[in-house]
Amino acid sequence: MVVKLYGLVTAACPQRVLLCFLEKEIEFEIVHVDLDTLEQKKPEHLLRQPFGQVPAIEDGDFKLFESRAIARYYATKYSNQGTNLLGKSLEHRAIVDQWADVETHYFNVLAFPIVLNLVIKPRLGEECDAVLVEELKAKLGVVLDIYENRLASNRFLAGDEFTMADLTHMPAMGYLMRTDVNQMVKARVNMNRWWEELTARPAWKKLMKMAGFEA
Amino acid sequence: MVLKVYGPHFASPKRALVTLIEKGVPFETVPVDLMKGEHKQPAYLALQPFGTVPAVVDGDYKIFESRAVMRYVAEKYRSQGPDLLGITVEDRGQVEQWLDVEATTFHPPLLNLTLHIMFASVMGFPSDEKLIKESEEKLSAVLDVYEAHLAKSKYLAGDFVSLADLAHLPFTDYLVGPIGKAYMIKDRKHVSAWWDDISSRPAWKETLEKYSFPA
């Protein structure tokens, strides 16, 4: 039986799980949840994800939600196949967790409202809050400087190897890089180098193809 | 050399402290004077580049992000004290799920209430009444989901207390105390019972006794 991912391939949080599946060579099935018609708020989906969000997974009797928790679960369960996403020792794993948590608290809190205003609102015909976007970009600049410094002495966020810490950033980064925020990344030598390496990974290329973002 | 936790008087470091006490791990604390801006000084930024608390130093090893520290301690000392990660990989998946719910969904509105009700005047910014109202509404909707879940589950991840429950302690303690919104917990039968249970654990009582913010 193959794990079912409820969500859609173009949404950032489901992409986090899909990337994990692709890196770990885990077979999966996507069950489409139509966000445009608010299917995620309907009773059937609320049974899988009581906060009315995507993704959720069903793997036989086992159910889980929160994309980062799902990714960690599969990275642990399939630790013997595909890319090792959780580090080589307990201490290394904790640094992976540290930078993965940084994504939640420092990066995503800024990236999400920027993408909401610059990408999603225009698509829905809503007005973008330009003043807010400028404030958020200023804060993001400070955060990116910290990342730049980290990546100056580390090839990836948690050290020499690609881990969950890098993977968890990729969906939101993918969206940010489609806006003029890409200038902020390109202006930082190490962030640019890091992003180029991440996007050269076969799992990312497969995901982009699945999402219809690349030829 | 003993593990050191920086900034014990503040809320986020208490996630690490309560975990250390639950697991019976010896540690020392190092105060950080946020009022004097000690967290923005180079010496502290070398430990935590985002300038927030906690930071943890364990010999040569440094780690930040309170929930990453919790996971590290729970894993390293798995064989002593309560098993805060559950027993199976699936148990751990549930722990990670609710730990992430706390981080992504419960914490942000509660953090707004904390900053705007408890710390606005001290930190010198105007308290945003509209944001307070919206944050209370958001947190209320989240607590409704918790109420339904805790009606079927003794603790968040199952019938065992875990990191997911402990992660809620420090800021919920603010909510029922100085924020003045204990009704949000007390008016919900199962959330209230859960709160009474976890907040009466000896490890949490010891955390508050030793590291409460000086009056």
Task: Provide key terms for this protein.
heterodimer, A: 215 residues, alpha+beta, Glutaredoxin, Glutathione S-transferase Yfyf (Class Pi), Chain A, domain 2, 2 domains, 4-stranded mixed sheet, 56% helix, 8% strand, globular, B: 215 residues, 10 helices, 4 strands, 57% helix
Describe this structure in words.
The complex is a heterodimer of chains A (215) and B (215). Chain A is of the alpha+beta class. Chain A contains 10 helices and 4 strands. In chain A, strands 2-1-3-4 form a 4-stranded mixed β-sheet, with helices on one face. The longest helix of chain A is centred in the middle third of the chain and has 34 residues, at 90-123. Chain A starts with a strand and ends in a 5-residue tail after the last helix. Chain B has 2 domains: 3-81, Glutaredoxin, CATH 3.40.30; 89-205, Glutathione S-transferase Yfyf (Class Pi), Chain A, domain 2, CATH 1.20.1050. The longest helix of chain B has 35 residues, at 89-123. At the A-B interface, strand 4, helix 3, helix 4 and helix 5 of A face strand 4, helix 3, helix 4 and helix 5 of B.
TL;DR of this structure?
Chain B: Its EC number is 2.5.1.18. Chain A is α+β, with helices and mostly antiparallel strands and 215 residues long. Chain A has 10 helices and 4 strands, in the order βαβαββαααααααα.
Q: Examine the coordinates and then state which fold CATH places here, giving the name of the CATH topology of the largest domain in chain B.
A: Glutathione S-transferase Yfyf (Class Pi), Chain A, domain 2
Number of helices of chain A: 10
**CATH hierarchy class name of the largest domain in chain A:** Mainly Alpha
Mind summarizing the main beta sheet of chain B? 4 strands, mixed
| Proportion of residues in extended strands of chain B | 5-15%
Number of structural domains of chain A: 2
Bin the strand percentage of chain A: 5-15%
Per CATH, the class of the largest domain in chain B reads Mainly Alpha
**N-end to C-end Cα span of chain A:** 31 Å
CATH architecture label of the largest domain in chain B: Up-down Bundle
* Shape category of chain B: globular
Low-confidence stretches of chain A: none
Mean pLDDT of chain B: 96
Number of helices of chain B: 10
Number of structurally distinct domains of chain B: 2
Q: In the CATH hierarchy, what is the architecture of the largest domain in chain A at level 2? A: Up-down Bundle
Shape of chain A: globular
Q: Which protein chains make the most extensive interface, counting residues with beta carbons within 8 Å of the other chain's beta carbons?
A: A-B, 31 and 31 residues
H and E string of chain A: EHEHEEHHHHHHHH
GO molecular function (chain B): glutathione binding; glutathione transferase activity
Keywords (chain B): Cytoplasm, Detoxification, Transferase
Domain GST N-terminal (chain B): 1-81
InterPro entries (chain B): Glutathione-S-Trfase_C-like (IPR010987), Glutathione-S-Trfase_C_sf (IPR036282), Glutathione_S-Trfase (IPR040079), Glutathione_S-Trfase_N (IPR004045), GST_C (IPR004046), GST_Phi_C (IPR034347), Thioredoxin-like_sf (IPR036249)
